[in-house]
């Protein structure tokens, strides 16, 4: 798994 | 985007609108913790600074603007317009006991030691405990207006739906964010006793009253 680089959630 | 995240966002939006309408229509913020609303305004402000730096989608940007706008409008209604109806005596939770540890944790445990990332992490941690002053106030007054319980139910449901969204994204997109997930679990767990009271009492038409 990887981490989200850009927080695309609210 | 998946169905859990979309319904989660809509549940969150519904909660924010329900609260704003309740205060505006009844011209009263009785039973509402102004401290929790200030914490939510801080949560949105620190989390959505990326409005200035990155564009993700029309949906993302418009929802962030709506959340921030409604949060500050709610704080304005509580502390300015209808401040005569603000029940400061029962809204006595010491929020510094939340903000300081959360701030320290955000500096220690984060994905990236950068300004925006630490603010985002602070916002995630703060949101998980921001409802405590409101739940504390209800435990002190021993009751809550039914419309307030609907607000709290939608607000609690939103992060529970986000937990399902993260399971979905882990399974289908093999991505997950431990900080958001752990904070989301804590946040949802804090609502459990309220959910129990809401389902066993409010949904049966009774008023939500706690054994004082």
TrEMBL record, chain B:
Recorded GO MF terms: ER retention sequence binding
PROSITE patterns attached to this UniProt entry: ER_LUMEN_RECEPTOR_1 (PS00951), ER_LUMEN_RECEPTOR_2 (PS00952)
Keyword set, alphabetical order: Cytoplasmic vesicle, Endoplasmic reticulum, ER-Golgi transport, Membrane, Protein transport, Receptor, Transmembrane, Transmembrane helix, Transport
Membrane topology: Multi-pass membrane protein
Main location: membrane
Domain of life from the UniProt record: Eukaryota
Single biological process term from Gene Ontology: protein transport
TM region(s), chain numbering: 65-82, 94-113, 119-138, 150-172, 178-199
Pfam families: ER_lumen_recept
Record localization: Cytoplasmic vesicle, COPI-coated vesicle membrane; Endoplasmic reticulum membrane; Golgi apparatus membrane
Gene Ontology annotations for the cellular component aspect, listed alphabetically: COPI-coated vesicle membrane; endoplasmic reticulum membrane; Golgi membrane
Family to which the UniProt record says this protein belongs: Belongs to the ERD2 family.
Name of the protein: ER lumen protein-retaining receptor
Species this protein is from: Cynoglossus semilaevis (Tongue sole)
């Amino acid at each position: 798994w990887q981490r989200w680089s850009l927080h695309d959630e609210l | 985007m998946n169905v859990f995240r979309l319904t989660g966002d809509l549940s969150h939006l519904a909660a924010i609108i329900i609260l704003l309408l309740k205060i505006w229509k009844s011209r009263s913020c009785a039973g509402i913790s102004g401290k929790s609303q200030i914490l939510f305004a801080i949560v949105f402000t620190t989390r959505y600074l990326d409005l200035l730096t990155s564009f993700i989608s029309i949906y993302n940007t418009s929802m962030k603007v709506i959340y921030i706008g409604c949060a500050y409008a709610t704080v304005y209604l509580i502390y300015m317009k209808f401040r005569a109806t603000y029940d400061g005596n029962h809204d006595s939770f010491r929020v510094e006991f939340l903000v300081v540890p959360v701030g320290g944790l955000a500096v220690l445990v984060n994905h990236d030691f950068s300004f925006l990332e630490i603010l985002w992490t602070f916002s995630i941690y703060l949101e998980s405990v921001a409802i405590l002053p409101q739940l504390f106030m209800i435990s002190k007054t021993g009751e809550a207006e039914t419309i307030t319980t609907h607000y709290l139910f939608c607000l609690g449901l939103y992060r529970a739906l986000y937990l399902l969204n993260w399971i979905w994204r882990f399974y289908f997109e093999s991505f997950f964010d431990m900080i958001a997930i752990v904070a989301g679990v804590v946040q949802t767990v804090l609502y459990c006793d309220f959910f129990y009271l809401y389902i066993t009492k409010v949904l049966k038409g009774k008023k939500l009253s706690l054994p004082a």
